[in-house]
Design a protein that fits this description.
This protein is of the alpha/beta class. The protein has twelve helices and 19 strands. It binds cytidine-5'-triphosphate and magnesium ion.
């Protein structure tokens, strides 16, 4: 029945992750190469029942998150980024307000069912969403629960575990009911840790539906370890991965060109001419990118950054390298080490090798010690020997994340 109705979902990601600590808030930590909050958003985006998604983030993170969402691609149901509040309840409430403002502005009737989901639960399954939607449709409010694994006690003694459940998200509600519940809670100065406790205050019983142990909330540092293992299991279907290490080769050639700057390995080289090419013609970085794509079975540089695309005209190859590493990560790989050789009589790259390693290591996300840059001549033989251009070769080792 609910299949004919629109369903909206709010993802709350405006917390500060104080129990996790660290410099980067937990929703922006990466699992299997993807940020926690993007995984959570993606789980809802991919669910066929969800129509509109609203992501609540810290006000100061709105621009940053917009960039993350743009970079993530294909999250086509995200309608708005909404600034959150001090408390989770405030964030969810801001999300709901923002969502209603959106539907009004678009002149779309508000959906009857709304889900509220923690961004910190990135392993949301289709089954849990189905169960919550069904429960909310039938009862007005539904939460996924799981039986407790540990024995629980209060100061007085051991509690009867069979009567206790841990509550997860998404929590699903009749949209009008949720609105009313927030309003009433505001009036009474109440802030619960979950949304269902607020609808219950209006006398509505919450349906308990089957949650999933995999849908755990990333809260403390060790949860990231479980999460990484979980991401790997999802990626491989529980099978041992065929190969944890993969190697690739890259080769590139550019002709010398007058009146162009010479950039090699991302570093400006003091030389009377540069190299011809659509981008900055950084032949060394191009060979490295091709080796990386090769190692991960992702084709080559031309497939990802075609030289017919105006967007890449004159672009710094370092930017392309950054995107290459991003594409690798999306496919579950990261670089391990690089060995590259520049082939030509001149310029000599020895004096620049250290700076190149430093520059490249930032984009590759690996230590400088994992990058080797060298040069060779061809004893004046061939096009390199005649000084017509430069060639570069690279070998890259990558590993699965
Ligand atoms: N959340 C939010 N706004 C807040 C607080 C929390 O949107 N003011 C979100 C979090 O980003 C998270 C979810 O609510 O996705 C569940 O909260 P929790 O796990 O407690 O996250 P944090 O509050 O960030 O962590 P901590 O309590 O350890 O500080
Ligand atoms: Mg919190």
């Amino acid at each position: 029945m609910y299949r004919e109705k629109r369903i909206g979902a709010i993802v709350v990601a405006a917390g500060s992750g104080s129990r996790m600590g660290g410099n980067v808030a937990k929703q922006y930590r990466k699992i299997g190469g993807e940020m926690v909050f993007l995984r959570s958003v993606r789980a809802l985006n991919e669910h066929p029942l969800i129509d509109d998604l609203f992501v609540v983030v810290k006000e100061s993170d709105v621009n940053y998150c917009r960039g993350c969402l743009d970079g993530a691609g294909s999250l086509d149901k995200v309608r708005m980024l909404i600034p959150g509040g001090e408390e989770r309840k405030e964030s969810a409430q801001n999300g709901l307000r923002g969502a209603y403002a959106y539907w009004e502005r678009m002149e779309i009737p508000a959906p009857r069912i709304i889900l509220v989901h923690d961004a910190a639960r990135p392993f949301l399954s289709e089954e849990v969403v189905d169960a919550v939607v069904r429960g909310a449709d039938e009862s007005g409010a539904a939460v996924p629960v799981i039986p407790l694994k540990d024995t629980v006690r209060s100061g007085e003694g051991t509690l009867d575990r069979s009567k206790l459940f841990a509550v997860q998200t998404p929590q699903g509600f009749d949209a009008e009911l949720l609105r009313k519940a927030y309003k009433q809670a505001d009036k009474d100065g109440v802030s619960g840790t979950d949304d269902a406790s607020l609808t219950e205050r209006l006398g509505v019983r919450t349906a308990l539906v089957t949650g999933d142990y995999g849908n755990f909330k990333i809260t403390t540092e060790e949860d990231l370890i479980w999460a990484e293992a979980m991401a790997k299991r999802l990626r491989t279907g529980g099978q041992a991965e065929e190969l944890a290490l993969r190697v690739g080769i890259g080769y590139d050639v550019h002709a010398f060109a007058p009146e162009r700057k010479m950039i090699l390995g991302g570093v400006r080289i003091d030389y009377p001419c540069g190299l011809a090419g659509h981008s900055d013609a950084d032949v060394l970085t191009h060979a490295i990118m091709d080796a990386l794509f090769g190692a991960c079975g992702l084709g080559d540089i031309g497939r990802h950054f075609p030289d017919t695309d105006e967007a890449f005209k004159g672009i710094s190859s370092l930017k392309l390298l950054r995107r290459t590493v991003g594409l690798l990560r999306e496919s579950g790989f990261e670089p391990v080490n690089i060995d590259a050789v520049l082939i030509g009589e001149r310029p000599k790259i020895g004096p620049y090798a250290k700076e190149m390693k430093k520059t490249l290591s930032k984009e590759l996300g690996i230590e400088e010690s994992q990058i080797n840059i060298k040069g060779t001549t061809t004893e004046k033989l061939g096009f390199c020997g005649r000084g017509e251009g430069l060639a570069a070769q690279a070998v890259a080792l990558c590993r699965t994340i």
